[in-house]
Amino acid sequence: MAVKAKRNSTRRIHIGTVPIGGGAPVAVQSMTNTDTRDVLATVDQIERLSTAGCEIIRLAIPDQEAATAFGEIKSRVETPLIADIHFDYRLALAALEKGADGLRINPGNIGGRKAISKITEVAGDLNVPIRIGVNSGSLHNEVLEKHGRPSPEAMVESALMNIALMEDLGFEQMKISLKSSNVLDTIRAYELLSEKVKYPLHLGVTEAGTLISGTVKSAIGIGQLLSKGIGDTFRVSLTRDPVEEVRVAYEILRAVDLRHRGPEIISCPTCGRCEIDLFGLVEKVEEALATIEASPKVAIMGCVVNGPGEAREADIGVAGGRGQGILFKKGEIIRKIPEHKLADILINEVKNLVK
């Protein structure tokens, strides 16, 4: 039997109503890719993300108009919102005024100690956490010159400098991220930092790429760290609809046995023995069950070699062949079903199972 990794002990903070660190469940985060100034489009995307299970959502605040829109958006949604701020500390103050549940800043580009002092003073009064985001592409020049490249050691040194600054200003409501597009650098950086600080860590592989490459990089990087007990929140970064980020995030959590949300669909890759349209069947079932929070194991198999065995091991499943399929439930054969009815019947059976 596999042994779960012991979670690293970190401080507890809250992003709105969501507890982070201190033994709380690893939280799933994403970021809108709408123009924040477009209130209706952004609210619509937030609602879709929330339905998919996203627990914390970050919005870009590039200017004062976006900060104003942030307040309107905040009044229309329930999911905790983080304001992503760069270059202008006044936007951070405006977002706090509009009700931001958290801030994401890079102290290296926000305007120096005086600006950061103003942000931490207001955030401290409002009990709003700040994420210090260190990216390999935006390290301090002196750190880059010292290390020669944005290495894991360079990222950690930059993070520790920023943490020290915040602590010197009397602010400790922090979570930290160290992101690189290089998976191995990302893993090593988080490993190093987790040995030095007790602040909650937000995981991610930045600019991971498209659906396939980004999923692979994120699963390896984030999955390895989570399996070692490192990480309190994370975002899967994909060049895709952010709802896909949330779906991938929960599959990573399922794979490392930390959280289970939504049906676990087990399906074969198909081969020359497959005699039903398994691709179409799986896609239809997966789409129909996408909003279910319960996590039954659903097997959708395409032939008689491994199909019946896998279907029997699932909570519910079908094994297809020659234009029909056998429905299994809890290891028992229920009945044969014509291929054209397989999807609808399986969908209904799963929904009835989780009522």
Characterise this structure:
This protein is an alpha/beta fold and about 350 residues long. It has 2 domains: about 15-255, Alpha-Beta Barrel (TIM Barrel); about 265-355, Sulfite Reductase Hemoprotein, domain 1. The chain is about 45% helix and about 20% strand. The protein is built from 12 helices and 15 strands. It has helices at about 40-50, 65-75, 90-95, 110-125, 140-145, 150-170, 185-195, 210-225, 240-255, 280-290, 305-315, 340-355, and strands spanning about 15, 20, 25-30, 55-60, 80-85, 100-105, 130-135, 175-180, 200-205, 235, 265, 295-300, 315-320, 325-330, 330-340. An 8-stranded parallel sheet has the order 8-7-6-5-4-3-10-9. The longest helix is centred in the middle third of the chain and has 17 residues, at about 150-170. About 45% of the residues are buried.
Sheet-strand content, in percent, reads 15-25%
CATH topology descriptor of the largest domain: TIM Barrel
| Global mean pLDDT | 90
N-to-C series of helices and strands: EEEHEHEHEHEHHEHEHEHEHEHEEEH
Q: What's the CATH H-level superfamily name of the largest domain?
A: Dihydropteroate synthase-like
What class do helices, strands and sheet pairing give? alpha/beta
Q: Reading side by side through the largest sheet, how are the strands ordered?
A: 8-7-6-5-4-3-10-9
**How many DSSP helices?**
12
Spans of at least 5 consecutive residues with low confidence: none
Radius of gyration from the CA trace? 23 Å
> Domains counted in the coordinates: how many?
2
Q: What is the approximate shape?
A: elongated
Largest sheet: 8 strands, parallel
Classify the oligomer: single chain
